[in-house]
Amino acid sequence: MRPTGQGDSLRRPKVSKYSCGLVVTVVGLGFCSFYVRELLVSLAVFSLAFGVLTLAALAAVIFWWASETVANKTGPASRKVLAFSRRIIAAYERP
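Given the sequence above, the corresponding structure tokens read:
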């Protein structure tokens, strides 16, 4: 038995029997609309494209990091090539 005054403010919300059916009907009709389907396909295509571009950029950064690590662990000839590539990159960064 619970004491009086506790739990009285928590009431179960009254949901109509037909509200779930109405929501399902509206969503179902929305998916039947050509414009909604077109927007969903566009969202999927652009999400996929941006995901591929992100993975390509990440792969480029990892490849650059790996090449720097290999060049630092090898002899002086690789360090000269690394210094040369850094000078070329610095030349492109200048306005």
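The radius of gyration is 30 Å. Try to locate this feature in the token string yourself.
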